[in-house]
Amino acid sequence: MTTRHALRDDPRPPPPAPRLLPLAVPLFAEMALAIGMGLVGTVLAARLGDAQGAAFALVNQVLAMLFVFFRIIGAGVGVVVAQALGGNKRAAADAAARAAWGASSWIGGICMLLAAVLAAPLLGVMNAPPEVLPLAVPLLQWMAPAVLLDAWNSTAASVLRSHLHARPTMVVNITMQVVHLALAVPLMGGAFGWDGLGLAGYALALLAARTLGLVLFLQAWHTRLGGVPTGADWWQWRQRALAPVLHIGLPGAAENVAWRAAYVFSISVVGSMGTLALATHAYTMQLIHFILLFAATLGLAAEIMVGHLVGAGRLHQANALVRRLLGRGLLMALAVSLVVALAGRWLMGWFTADAQIIAAGATLLWLTIALETGRTFNLVLVNALRAAGDARFPVQAGAVSFALVMAGGSWLLGAHLGWGLVGVWVAYAADEWLRGLLNWWRWSRLGWLPAARQMHRRLHQSGRFR
After folding, report:
1. Which of 29, 35, 203, 324 could pair with 143 in a Cys bridge, judged by C-beta atoms 3.0 to 4.6 Å apart?
2. Strands, E, within 139-294: which ranges?
3. How many CB atoms lie under 10 A from the CB of residue 215?
4. How far apart are CA 416 and CA 409, in angstroms?
């Protein structure tokens, strides 16, 4: 079977294909500001002391781990809505969005309780140093209510983006981040002779900003989509409508949970090296987030665009789009990581004056060139595979690599062989390259086609997902 025959398109006239720039530019802006807020938060915490900086980093890792669980809904509903809209099935898109809102309430509420009640055990899993744990536990508990708000906000943003309303989504997220920053600076460090609340001030600012974000997202749903969640939409678990969302979201969440578990294990290895190593890891990762930004923007844009194209049956266009975006992402990751590595010592000086931390972080930023080019494969290809309905392959491809290469390699190279943080970074890069190449093999061999065709056929035969 030739590639062209395998990729035959739906002969029916498609809806207009989504364009890259109207999606990518707002996505880039809101993600850049979110990462910038994380960087500023780390700087503000680090100015209180290296122990506070390490506590802030550990709490954010726990929250990121919990975030994975309600991304089951956010990621799944984004793909399902995009596919339905691509196939001109607005009713199916609306049903999925309403069902996802109620599910977000349940999952977000459970995650909020976990953060509040099990703060100490969750941080203990990450091998927090004794001087860091007493600072991290109350911070995680203070930030717990924002987890539920994040669950709702994530679902709202995913639905709006899939409707190609990336600009209003950007406006809400930027407003939320600006308010957070404007409140965090005085609440953490004080003002007009007041000493401030320290880390608790960051949590209070976060809660206020996320509450405002929810109000603005609901307003955007009303004006852009013609309705908001009402009554039972807030709490009802609608299994039938959620089935296609979970079909996409659960494998994606499983992959993220496995990655997060391996990453948490690697951080526990770093934690065993001491507070200086943990602070170096935290500060370096904040800089890496900026390198990741360009490829992450392309990955999320690819997910939305591929979802629309697959829903419309435009498989040739989807295949060509992914190849184009992958090349662009690799070039951008290489260029940006090189610039950051060249400025490594200066950038690390933003966080600390400790010469040992600055030198170690600068070395890690050079190794990040290999890490981030490999990660680009996953950000573009995993999102594309998920949008095409082939959500299970990335989990299968990643399972062994997470356990043996990322987690096992971090321990073997970092702790057992004594390479320290360099060994951990080598394990990170090896894991990303292995999974990236496996996902490229899957896409280039057209292994995603059966799932894409099955989704398209079911949508157009029944008028809804089932």
Report:
1. 203
2. none
3. 10
4. 10
Long-range contacts of 187-191 (CB under 8 A, 24+ apart): 188/44, 188/45, 188/48, 189/44, 189/47
Listed in sequence order, the residues at least 6 apart from 428 whose beta carbon sits closer than 8 Å to its beta carbon are 266, 371, 406, 410
| Residues 80, 83: Cα–Cα separation, whole Å | 5
Q: Which two tokens stand for residue 145?
A: 């209510």
Q: Residue 381: CB partners within 8 Å, gap ≥ 6?
A: 322, 326, 394, 436, 439, 440, 442, 443
Amino acid, single-letter form, for residue 159: V
Smallest CA-to-CA distance from 372 within 431, 417, 298, 432 is with 432
Residue 326: partners with Cβ closer than 8 Å, 6 or more residues away: 376, 377, 380, 381, 440
pTM of structure: 0.78
Per-position DSSP letters for 422-436, written without gaps between them: HHHHHHHHHHHHHHH
CB 322 within 8 A of CB 354: no
Check residue 19 and give its pLDDT.
74
N-terminal to C-terminal alpha carbon distance within the chain: 30
DSSP string, 339-352: HHHHTHHHHHTTT-
* Separation CA 465–CA 84 (nearest Å): 8
Position 461 scores a pLDDT of 66
Residue partners of 343: CB distance under 8 A and separation at least 6: none
Burial (CB < 10 A; 0-12, 13-18, 19+), residue 307, is: buried
Q: DSSP for 133-179, please give it.
A: HHHHHHHHHHHTHHHHHHHHHHHHHHHHHHTT-HHHHHHHHHHHHHH
CA dihedral 214, 216, 222, 225 (to 10 degrees): -80
Q: Mean pLDDT for each consecutive 10-residue tract of the chain (466 residues)? A: 43 60 84 79 80 84 80 80 83 85 90 89 78 87 90 90 89 92 85 78 92 94 85 82 82 82 88 86 85 83 87 86 88 90 89 86 92 88 89 86 92 90 94 92 88 76 50
Calculate the CA 62 to chain-centre distance. 14
- Pick from 188, 58, 201, 64: which is nearest to 133 by CA? 58
Residue among 217, 212, 90, 119 at smallest CA distance from 165: 217
- 155 to 98, 211, 355: CA distances (angstroms): 10, 15, 43
User: Over the range 161-187, which residues count as b (16 or more CB within 10 Å of their CB) and which as e?
Assistant: bbbbbbebbbebbbebbebbbebbbeb
Alpha-carbon span 268 to 410, nearest angstrom: 10
Give the position of tokens 């989704």: 455
Domain boundaries, given as residue ranges, for the chain: 19-462
Give the amino acid at 86.
Answer: G
